[in-house]
Each structure stands twice: as structure tokens, then as C-alpha cells.
Amino acid sequence: MDSPVTHSKLNTEAEEDEEELYEHYRIVVDAGQSPMRLDKYLSLHVPNATRTKIQNGIEAEAVKVNDGASKASYKVKPDDVIVLALPQPPRTTEIVGEDITLDIIYEDEEITLVNKPAGMVVHPAFGNWSGTLVNALVYHFENLPTGRNGDIRPGLVHRIDKDTSGLLVIARSEYGMTHLAKQFADHSIERTYYALVWGELKQERGTIEGHVGRSTKDRRMMEVYPDGSQGKRAVTHYELLESIRYVSLVKCNLETGRTHQIRAHMKHIGHPIFGDSTYGGDRVRRGAASGSYKAFVENCFKIMPRQALHAKSLGIIHPKTKQLMPFDTELPEDFTEVLERWRNYVQYS
């Protein structure tokens, strides 16, 4: 028979990044704690977590005891250090399903892959309570994980910006959500973005490292803090795919998933994303800001009135089969049209 629970030290960090919709917990078991099953102990110590959710987390190896995986039946003992990452608990705002067409790349009982168009907000929030991806998901799919009791983010384990297009993986079951959340927490998800940036990069390959956090001057923006004084660790690996004199097509692989990470990092190295109004990419940054060239650039902005950023590929471990599943998408029409216009301009001007 399990013994009564005693007080333990709990540290909680709820991630606020665009692509990390889970919570971290670190629990140090109290010195007076009697033996108790790990799943029961955590269900009593982690806010809003049922025993089933805890068991799913343990099965998905999202729970570590003293830096090692453990079983639900493990008996906790004094001074054990337990670390776990679980999907965030439900919110309290009711979501209305809306009949919005989705571009579904793949689906089964555990996951769905969606190619999100630019201009669609991922989940409801202040100023965007309808027309979101979540509104569409609630309409098309029943019983999305953590979707009960008015959760505003059912099925979500990561996000991309409103004006960024591309791939998102949606969890269709509680186990699938927990397993995917662990992959994002471990940074084991393979994520590749294509970006059209201003200027010609000096190196064909590189890594941008610098903490990313809210700007002290404008809370809508993220700032890079190379000294780590603020924000959270952020790492972006990039590769030059094509140099087009004034702009460059770049492939970015995310090691971490911070809010606006690629956008902030590319601005930090002097190559803001083309069309990115928040980070200064929506004006002429290379070449003369006058005459026919300026008119050409402004026409490109009209064709693609957003940042030229696309979440092109995503590689995940399937929650049930444990097999690596790579997914890829084509660049959207506005992106390819602007890219082709730049190629033609450079070739014939």
C-alpha cells in the first residue's frame, strides 16, 4: 500500500516559445517521503495532470528519475530528482469548430500533418478568436487530446507564425501528444525552413547562436542576446542554397524552437528575411532605393505581402511505430513567384 505523500520541492517552467507547447517540471523528493509508485506520486505533485497523462509520459520516456528512464511502478525515495516534460494543461476558453479547408499531408490515429497557408493564425488568442487552424481542427476531428473543457490549443505541440507557411504536426491522441512533446523537448524533431533573405551570405554554411528573448524596446519583437544575459538559448544552422545578387535563398535547420527564432537570428547577422515587416525586411536593404529597381522590389512585396519563410520539411518519430517519418512540402505559389522574379531580374538587368 502506498504511503502518504509529503511536501517536495517543485520547479515549473512553462515554455512560451512558438514551437514548444509543453511544460517542464523538476521535482526533488522530500527527505521524509515514504515509498510510493512513481505514477501516483507525480499525479499528486504535478498540477492539472491525471494519472493517465502521467503514465503516458512515463511510457513515452518523457519522465526521468535521476537522469534515467523509469517505470510507472518505480518506488520514489527521498532525494530522487524527477524531471518531466508534459503537454500544457487545458485552458478555459471555448473553441467553436469552423468549416475551414485543411491541406492534410498525412493522417492516422496518432498524428496528422497539415500544410498551413500564410495568413492563418495557429490557435485562438486576443484579436484572433476565429478563423484559426485550431478552429478548423476542432471542426474536422473529434476528441483531439487536451481538447476537452475548452482547451484553446487541442492537438498542438508546436506553432509557426501567422505569416509563415508550412508544415505542422498535430497530435490525435493523448499518447501521441505526450510522445511528440518529448521529441520537441529533446530537440530531436528535424525541422527545415526555407527563407529568402536580403544580401549575399559570406559563408555557404554556418551556425547562429545567441539567446533569443523579448525586445526591451518593442514587445512584439524578439531580440538576440549573444552574451546570454536575457532570453533563452537559441541555435539555427543555415546553408546557402542560391545567391541572387541582392537576395539569397537559405535553408535553416532549427536546433531549438524559440519565438521568431529564424527571423531574429537572420536580422542579427545582417540578413533580414525578405518582406518581414517586423524585422526590417519590408524595405530595400540591398541596391539603390530608387528608380526601376525600387519599383521591382515593391512589386515583389505586393506579390508576397509577408515574410518569405516556409516550414518546408519535418521529421518525427511516429509515437506508435517508433519509425522516423520525414515529410516535405513544395514552396507556396507566392514564394516561388517572387523567387523566379528575382532570378529573371538579375539575369536580364
Describe what you observe in this structure.
This protein has 7 helices and 18 strands. It has 349 residues and is of the alpha+beta class. The strands form 4 sheets. Strands 8, 9, 10, 11, 12, 15, 16, 17 and 18 form a 9-stranded mixed sheet that branches. A hairpin with a 2-residue loop joins strand 4 and strand 5. The radius of gyration is 22 Å and the shape is elongated. The N and C termini lie far apart (81 Å). The N terminus is likely disordered.
Give the topology, please.
Elements (H helix, E strand, L loop, with lengths): L8 E6 L7 E7 L7 E2 H8 L5 H9 L3 E3 L2 E2 L5 E2 L4 E7 L16 E4 L3 E6 L16 H8 L24 E7 L2 H12 L4 E9 L6 E5 L1 E4 L7 E4 L9 E10 L2 E8 L6 H8 L22 H13 L5 E9 L6 E5 L4 H16 L1
Parallel strand pairs: 10-17
Antiparallel strand pairs: 1-2, 2-7, 3-6, 4-5, 4-7, 8-9, 9-10, 11-16, 11-17, 12-15, 13-14, 15-16, 17-18
Helix pairs in contact: 1-2, 2-4
Q: What's the quick description here?
A:
By secondary structure, this protein is α+β, with helices and mostly antiparallel strands.
Radius of gyration: 22 Å
Residue runs with pLDDT of under 50 for 5 or more positions: 3-7, 9-16
Percent strand equals 25-35%
pLDDT averaged over residues: 87
C-alpha geometry: elongated
Largest sheet: 9 strands, mixed
The overall strand count is 18
Order of helices and strands: EEEHHEEEEEEHEHEEEEEEHHEEH
Q: Please give the alpha-carbon distance between the first and last residues.
A: 81 Å
Give helix % range: 10-25%
- Helix vs. strand class: alpha+beta
The DSSP helix count reads 7
